[in-house]
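Annotators were shown the component list below and the corresponding predicted structure, then asked to write short factual statements about the assembly.
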Amino acid sequence: MDALNTINNVFLIIAAAIRSLFADPHSVWANLTMDVIDFIIVVIIVVLAALILILLERKVAGWTSQRPGPNRLGPRGWFQTIADALKLMGKEDITPSGADKFIFKVAPMIIFSLPMMTLAVIPYGKGMAPINIDLGIFYFLAISAISTVAFIMAGWGSNNKYSLLGGMRAVAQMISYEIPLLFSLLGVVMITQSFNLGVIVEAQRTVPFILIQPLAFVIYIIAGLAEVNRAPFDLVEADQEVVAGPFTEYTGLRWGLFFLGEYGNMTAVSALAATVFLGGWQGPAPIPGWVWFWMKVGIIIFFMMWARWTFPRIRIDHLMHLAWKVLLPLSILNIFLTGLGIYIYRLVMGG
Amino acid sequence: MTIKETEELLLNMGPQHPSMHGLFRMVVNLEGETVTKLEPKMGYLHRGIEKLAESRTYSQFIPYTDRLDYLASPHNNWAYVQTVEKLMGLEIPERAEYLRVIFGELARIASHQVCIASTALDMAGWSAWSYAFRDRERICDMYEMTAGSRLTVNNMRIGGMSNEPPAEFWPALKSFLDDTPEMLEEYNGIFFGNEIAQGRLKSVGILSKELAENLSITGPCLRASGVNFDVRKAEPYSIYDRFDFNVPVRYGCDSYDRTIIRMDEIVESVKIIKQAVRDIPEGPIMAKVPKVIKPPVGEVYHRVENPKGELGFYIVSDGTTKPARLRIRAGTFINLQMLPIVSLGWKIQDVVAIFATLDAVLGEVDK
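Structure shown to annotators:
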């Protein structure tokens, strides 16, 4: 049991060791050093997630469509993404002559920076949130809403009609789906009476919230898929219609940043789902907490990939109907039912 | 305050665009995402096949027909060689006729599978695409073991067939025919039965019966609009009058019916091939044809039911070894004329789906 505890808290022990190097472990300098280290770790998480997920996606795609997928480079093709990344670095960086150059160049940076900001508040284990803030969920949703701006920036700045169409689609879609996404999380907040993600995970010690809030979980997954522009809601970069949407004019690493951002956002949305609905780092078997956490994230990401390669793309008017006529009323109903449940609970328990 | 006038967005889709099958370009006027005007532009793949025919002998022209509708090349060979045979008054052996029917119907199945696959792909149904293409590979294998090539089969000659299918062809054919119900079940499960796919296709792009007749649409697109017309039944060529099969007709007139009618046609094609395999006689596969083909002076028109529409060849002979004039009635070229009318008022996304259901092959459209 001691060994398990050590593995469980291995990152906390390392952090404490680094802090103890300072004369005063809680001085400003020690805090600053830890913040820098936390930041580097989150960057590593985003880049590693993208590297692994791109390959995984291609493997899942191969698996669903009955072909081997990448299998040439390295053992079973595991080095394929590294080769692709190197190739991207060697590509020419093209800025279209008619582009709004500043906006064109800033958009991919914004997209790439967002998952790093959102992943910073996720508790990866007990006491392992890089930044522990009380408005965790609120902060997460506020930051992820910025990606809409980045998409329309890329779409407008490229001076390309396909990009503009894609950017307009992005705005319509992401603003519509933000509302059910937000409302679906409110039920959990009402039960725990906290926006803090650490507190929410602690509250799921006995029962994960997926069992108490199943409707909210379904709404969250659907709205989350739409929020990160994954199929069947990938209208933003629908290659059969608008070529690649806002990304059409991007080349090389700028395009790569969009890609990293997409997979980073996907990881962030799955991480929030694992934290809020699946009990975060807690699990029934004696496995280190951070392993539990990444397993849950992996399951949700696999589900997203599975859906992408199976479903055709939804029609744009059906997309809007789904958001405003189905998901929004359902999420409001969920809030109402949760409130009713809390009221009855207090009445019975006399709280 | 003055009201600023808004402008429609003019979008050039193609010729280099992911969902333009081959080299097709449509100039689209967009109001938001709604199409207000659509102009199809063709000719990017024009190779002047009709003119080339005038400087080739009758036999030399057969490989060119492969490059018309390259997804169903046996049909093009068939239509052409039958036209020449009709001009010369040739009788061809029974066995060759049966082999032609077998290859023609196999080509129909392969072509319809590609249509289902590409319709799914144009709606981002990636897996459905690979399922249909996986099954089409088996037909390509059968082509390969008979004629050596997988796409441009070119095994029909004026007066018969170039060669007998090898011994391993028949078991492969039988197992393929036995597996087709399972394949269709899979396409249904992964694509046609999907709620999103049905939402994308049903009651989209209505082609009414009157419009279809007025535009002289042919093939599955016509039959999905409720017109029972199939050249194989209306004007039986080759030995089609000997087989027992139905002409599938659907009355929905929409994109969904234009796609799923191809599933019904695959079932009928399997029926025809099974009867042909049962009845095929032994014997020669080539008629006695003179070394130098010199049809008498005259002109002839012959049409067959290509998987995508009616394919006709019109040949004028001046008694020499080369045709004086050759004209091709390409079914998909005429079918494409409905696109500007049917697409009006639909979103750009739906236009891509409508275009996919027409199953246009630009090799045939541009000739």
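Statements collected:
1. The interface with chain B takes residues 61, 64-67, 161-162, 165, 169, 231-232, 234-235, 238-243, 309-318 of chain A (CB under 8 Å).
2. The radius of gyration of chain A is 21 Å.
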